[in-house]
Specification:
The structure is a homodimer. By secondary structure, chain A is α+β, with helices and mostly antiparallel strands. Chain A folds into 2 domains: 299 residues, Thrombin, subunit H; 277 residues, no CATH class. Helix content of chain A is 48%, strand content 15%. The longest helix of chain A has 43 residues. Chains A and B meet through strand 17 and helix 23 of A and strand 17 and helix 23 of B.
Chain lengths: 690, 690
């Protein structure tokens, strides 16, 4: 064989760079797609521009994104991101979900129950330290423990030093580790929310649909020391919004993608994982729907949960349809084959990395037999039970050294965890009882009466009686009781005779055993071999493929642009005319009814005002509430959804040409409603100065 | 084998009745779907009800349907059905296509150039006489001649006796023959037409689309003896239009379906016929588009033709997509297999009918080799050349006995034919020249320079020079010159040195030869064996399957109803709000621009007024302009299109559940525009009495 120079080898690898696809990627701020921006959009932001942008972006830990839109802590997010908090602030007598809310002065702003907002203030690459902590010859399990200890140490050091929330996060399936430091806000107050019916007009039907007509926005204000926080990094509001074909950026916290998974991992999702997930979510949705049928107050209590499961299910159906599509799946097989073929050109790389795929496949072969137990061995459908489990687990974990605890119990994360367990958000015992009873009954059916979790949960008793007693007699509805147990630590928990606590205590060993199995047999194998595959990808493609999303800050970008559908054109934006058309054409039957304020109010609005719009950025759930900004860093809209063409983009990027689009509320449409329908001129003035 | 009684055999056949599918079928008035109406809609019309309905329905021989909506000859059809006539009435100075038209008094009503309207006044079954004319032992060709002679005789007898237009039409692929007698109107005057841009808002993009916003209507009046005709059978106008889920009937003249074709015939369409048709239509469309680019006047001249080809092409693409769908095609194969299997249970039926499929398949095997010659050996793209060919053919045919002529030259049909050849509609020589030149050049490419048609058309000359001379020097632009040739008969035609006439004369023998080949080798086989298959179907299923459409009057029915699309809902109707939304959301860029009268006119209208709507009837092209009536025989809307889900319904019925819908303009929407935007209060009053 001829000798090949290193340079030639390198060139041969560079040829393997996958085609840079238009607008693909949810990029980290340390590696923004500067090349694509420059080439496609002639956009070359400075480092300062990017930093100011990052500091104006907010993560909402309920599961969404937001951004600052005034120097005085004013923040905009989606109505559906704040909906959990708005629900918690509502009562049957004062239903803010149904009727909306506007604080006419700062004094009227309503403190949320347990919202936490984070701003990513700095980040640092700690890959060497984390990966270097793994000793030569360590087993997968040992490697996991060694990495975990290193991570815990890094986080603790950072927290002690800066006082900031400090999380080490894994990127590229463990190919890199980064320390992210967050400024944390916990005093967050509701400023404005429209009626849910206009925020979610068209309901579950129009979810993931375009053309669309949703005022899916809410405004909140972050406070520090009882005063509005100073937020000098914020987005200026654009009164005109985006034009057709404008370049835009959306930055937010995409929840989760699975684009770097191996074919074996994807096949598991397709053949087992997604089917089970579907079963669980449908069951939990159906439980809530049955409860909602009991009356309007029950419907109010269950509504946010139902909506959230329907949303997840609609997305899951789309994802599964994607995986079931042989043409799409074949693309993933080809990607994997191409990467291996590129590796094969360099035997030393091949030797080092090729076993990774086999190892993951072998680990996953054990999963189907355990999947049902992993899915059903939980008390999650009940909030009281979840709190009880949290308290029991806290008792066990808090006594361990920091670096040996479960991730979520490490010192750096304890404040958030405690805030959650001690939240004063309302609890509805009847709904709790209905949910937990139905869940455990399905558990008995699915796992069988002799399953360890089922035995531990109900023993020889009836599900109904165990749950009834636990829900009705538990003291955990009272925050003080929870606090007493947390403060008392393991001794207090062990001594408790509270029937919800004892239920949680009985099932805890089973849950721990399953978690250990999952961590040892699956996750540690995934991490170790995922890291190898990531390195293989770096070797072949460099860092041209962004890491999978994991609810941390990312930049996405694209163009405001309509698309083809069914041989016709879908426009890039809708107008208020369209809202009234859709309402009238369904004779305002729910979910196409308008709230009182909007009914017959067409004459108050300039109906040509743009309302919603689409753009081609690569987004996914979790980016709800992300600011959409133009090249001048002006706020032109807020991301709230994707269209149906994009549903399977968890597993792969879907080309702009296939009509996949993100959906936003238009900045001009928001202003029009605030000023002309909500009498919220002061809020509009804070946004625009006018 | 056990002996089986006739009754049992009969029962076993009845079991084979195919599932009665919801709302399927374009039914003849002699066999309306009374059973389905009663069972599904509790609708049981009297014979008088049906007769009055039939007499209020009109066929427009330009290719569409219409109906009477006042006792004084007032007729409504689609704008696009009348568009050919409106174009012929337009000049560069007075562009009725662009600006619309409204006659404020009967004196202002504009006589169309060559429109013919027919009302089906009576019909009678002549199957025995036609089929009985075929002598035992006749070859396919002889059989065709004998049937033709019988048909000619029946038509002539009827015309002589009644003075009515009398056509014998074939149904069920020749399984039945019916004599249809029509009252004929040729003095038809334009009363109202909106601007094309509102009639066809969204252009080719929104064609076959819903939601939709088209005022696709025009009003004309039929005259007799210079006075408005009395039309006592007309539809009363419904001011409210249809409600969601209302039962409705649409009666009109569906152009052509191919649902009874054999698998061999369908496979030919899929593999050869449709591809060639596509090529021809795209070529003719492209020729016109290139011509239209020369200037606005050229664009005006070509626009109706372009639109018509685009419409046909969009439908053809959908049809071909359907045929290419293996699941759909397999259904047709199964249908044929099931019918044969049912026949197989009765050996005598099998013996009699089974060869029919084989015979058709054998005939079709010869088609692909001839298909290009059949498609390209014509001068059809030029109107002048078409007139010349008509005159040449007339000279040859008129000297033959009535029953030996081509169908379209039989006595009963001569008046319509002559009216067409002598139409005063404008001719645009430059467009004629462009079209014929490009067409013949493509003919040379496709058929080769030695093809008989090409040789006859251009010999050794250049296409450009032959066409230039023919178009520029022909006298046929003058109607009097045409009349002289027609009156002079064959002698005059043979003596003519008009270069367009001599061109037509040169190619005529080739065209006749190809037509003879097609009639002898294909059509006569199809008819003979189609009749056998029809009889086989009658034997197995009775008359439960309606005959294929052939531009004669049919009744269809269904329900006004929205549908699911892409996980959301499409409403059953749109409103004027939606029109302004779609225009604004495309910034009124063509084809989403509004005509002057409509721009900024939203405030003049009640925007909640329904505009277009969908219903589940089984319709197809040719039913454009069909009245949509409710169970009280009130006019609730006018059919003008189908949605994209329905595009392949030429070959099979598409279930309501798959979202296939017909699209209509709403009667209330029409009134709103007439009264509030067009100042056409008098017209509205004639419709409603108010």
């Amino acid at each position: 064989m001829k000798k090949v120079s290193v340079l030639l080898l390198l060139l041969s690898f560079l040829i393997n760079v996958p085609l840079l696809r238009a607008d693909e990627g949810m990029w980290t701020f340390d590696n923004p797609p500067l090349k694509q921006w420059k080439e496609r959009y002639k956009f070359e932001p400075s480092a300062e521009w990017l930093e100011k942008m990052r500091l104006a972006c907010v993560r909402i830990n309920d599961g969404g994104s937001a951004s600052f839109v005034s120097p005085d802590g004013l923040m905009i997010t989606n109505h559906h991101v704040a909906l959990g908090q708005i629900t918690k602030l509502s009562t049957p007598e004062r239903d803010l979900v149904k009727n909306g809310f506007y604080a006419r002065s700062q004094a009227e702003e309503l403190p949320t129950k347990d919202m936490e907002a984070n701003v990513l203030v700095s980040y640092e690459n700690v890959t060497d330290r984390v990966q270097g902590a793994v000793k030569k010859g360590a087993t997968d399990k040992q490697a996991a423990e060694q990495r975990k200890a290193a991570i815990a140490a890094i986080e603790k050091e950072s927290t002690d030093k800066t006082g900031l929330r400090s999380d080490v996060i894994s990127l590229y399936s463990g190919g890199e580790y980064w320390l992210y430091r967050f400024k944390k806000y916990t005093d967050i107050r509701l400023v404005f929310a429209p009626e849910e019916q206009i925020a979610f007009f068209g309901g579950d039907y129009d979810n993931f649909t375009f053309p669309r007509y949703n005022l899916d926005v809410s405004f909140l204000r972050v406070y520090e020391d009882g005063k509005p926080a100073k937020t000098p990094n914020y987005f200026k509001w654009s009164e005109t919004g985006p034009n057709d074909l404008d370049f835009v950026i959306a930055a937010g916290n995409p929840g989760s993608t699975a684009r770097l998974l191996t074919v074996a991992q994807l096949a598991y999702q397709r053949d087992t994982g997604n089917l089970l997930q579907k079963k669980v979510w449908e069951l939990r949705r159906d439980i809530l729907e049955n409860y909602a049928k009991l009356g309007s107050e029950q419907a109010r209590q269950a509504s946010n949960g139902i909506r959230s499961f329907n949303n997840s299910l609609k997305r899951l159906y789309g994802q599964q349809e994607g995986l079931m599509n042989p043409r799409m799946f074949a693309k993933k097989e080809k990607e994997e084959k191409d990467l291996k073929a590129a590796l094969a050109k360099k035997p030393e790389l091949m030797r080092q990395y090729a076993p990774a795929w086999t190892n993951i496949k072998a680990a996953y072969a054990q999963l189907p037999a355990m999947a049902k137990r992993l899915a059903f061995s939980t008390l999650a459908p009940s909030r009281l039970a979840t709190i009880a489990s949290g308290i029991v687990r806290y008792g066990d974990e808090i006594g361990k050294p920091n670096d040996q605890r479960y991730d979520e119990f490490r010192d750096a994360r304890l404040p958030g965890l405690k805030a959650n367990l001690l939240s004063t958000a309302p609890i509805y015992p009847a709904m709790e009882e209905a949910a937990l009873t139905a869940w455990l009954k399905e558990g008995v059916k699915t796992l069988g009466p002799n399953d360890p979790f089922i035995r531990a949960a109900i023993g020889d008793a009836e599900v109904d009686e165990v749950v009834k007693r636990a829900v009705n007699e538990t003291a955990l509805k009272d925050v003080a009781a929870r606090k007493a147990l947390l403060d008392g630590g393991k001794a207090a928990v062990d001594a408790s005779v509270d029937p919800m606590v004892t239920l949680a205590r009985r099932v805890e060993p089973v849950i721990r055993q399953l978690r250990a199995w999952n961590e040892d047999k699956i996750q540690s194998v995934e991490t170790r071999n995922g890291e190898l595959i990531a390195k293989a990808r770096f070797a072949v493609y460099g860092r041209t493929i962004p890491p999978d999303a994991n609810f941390n800050l990312r930049i996405t970008y694209g163009r405001v642009k309509g698309y083809d559908e069914d041989t016709t054109l879908v426009p890039f934006e809708t107008t208020y005319y369209g809202l009234f058309d859709r309402a009238a054409s369904f004779a305002e039957k729910p979910p196409f009814d308008l709230p009182e304020r909007w009914r017959g109010a067409a004459s108050k609005l300039d109906l040509t005002t743009p309302f919603n719009f689409v753009y081609s950025a690569d987004t996914i759930g979790g980016m709800s509430g992300s600011p959409i900004i133009n090249r001048n860093a002006e706020f032109v809209g807020i991301n709230f959804d994707s269209n149906v063409q994009k549903l399977s983009n968890r597993y792969w990027y879907i080309e702009e040409e296939e009509g996949s689009r993100a959906v936003g509320v238009h900045s001009a449409g928001i202003l029009e409603a605030l000023r002309k329908l909500y009498g919220a001129g002061d809020l509009a003035k804070e946004l625009t100065g006018k």
